[in-house]
Specification:
Pfam families: MAM33. By secondary structure, the protein is α+β, with helices and mostly antiparallel strands. The chain is built from 5 helices and 7 strands, in the order βαβββααβββαα.
Length: 271
């Protein structure tokens, strides 16, 4: 398990809004992505984030990716993903980033932890999500005239959807005793939304099935209560500045885990 520590004063609260930016693909050819989450917009100061992981090039097949040559096809994918990582300049942890980052290889999430006054904050960050995944070309680059004519429109749609790239957060606020507050959030480039909020009671499991009242939907809460809960999370470090950094971090992790997964697959089929 790899641990990356970054701490800041407990009272640190960040209110920086980073505008979204859609990066052009580093490859000279515009190609589809194999994994939609990797087609995500990084910050304005970051390097291009589109990872060229597609195993098909329009109009021709890549060397070594022909039928029956699975190891060769996997090597192509691994090489292209590694080229992206080699060119990706991961931003250093910001000085005012309030969390400790716990990143375990092979896992699809990263854990953030910090203490705030008498509370313990734990945030589970998932891989990036992208609305509207890419459509794949025919394997031989063939298609009817209508499909071919949509290429430019598809590229524009992908660029627009890249702006919707987001990460999911599960935020748990706990104290030494008593219930916990559990938030489910979605962090976009320009806003953080609270999708759900629960009060989790610490109860002894006596085997009896229980159905506790979980409260109303978050959007049904009074507006002032909703605003107060957003402020509550900001004070504990769940800010746009922190989530935008974690968005870039998770895009890079997605590529790293993809390479590890593809390498395991290649090693298995070659045995």
């Amino acid at each position: 398990m790899a641990f990356v520590s970054a701490t800041a004063p407990a009272s640190a609260s960040i209110f920086i809004s980073v505008p979204s930016a859609v990066r052009a693909c580093a490859s000279p050819q515009s190609r589809r992505l194999l994994l939609a989450p990797l087609h995500a917009a990084k910050g304005a100061k970051s390097v291009p984030v589109e990872v060229v992981l597609d195993s098909k090039v329009k109009g021709k097949k890549k060397k070594g990716s022909g039928a029956g040559n699975l190891p060769g096809a996997l090597e192509v994918e691994i090489r292209e993903a590694q080229e992206y990582l080699d060119s990706d300049e991961q931003e250093p942890v910001p000085e005012n980033f309030p969390f400790e980052i716990l990143d375990e290889e092979g896992m699809s999430v990263v854990i953030l932890k910090r203490d705030f006054k008498d509370e313990k904050i734990e945030v589970t960050v998932s891989m990036p999500n992208l609305e509207g995944g890419p459509e794949f070309d025919d394997e031989d680059g063939e298609g009817d005239g209508e499909s071919a004519g949509k290429d430019n429109d598809d590229d524009e749609d992908e660029d627009e959807s890249a702006g919707e790239s987001s990460i999911s957060l599960k935020v748990v606020v706990s104290k030494a005793s008593g219930p916990k507050l559990e938030f489910t959030c979605t962090a976009f480039r320009e806003e953080i939304t609270i999708d759900d909020m629960l009060i989790v009671e610490n109860t002894n499991d006596d085997g009896e099935e229980k159905f506790p009242y979980e409260g109303p939907e978050f959007t049904e809460l009074p507006v002032n209560v909703q605003k107060g809960l957003f402020k509550y999370l900001e004070q504990r470090g769940v800010t746009l500045s922190a989530t935008n950094y974690m968005h870039d971090y998770m895009v890079t992790k997605q590529a790293q885990e993809y390479i590890r997964w593809m390498t395991k697959l290649k090693d298995f089929v070659k045995q």
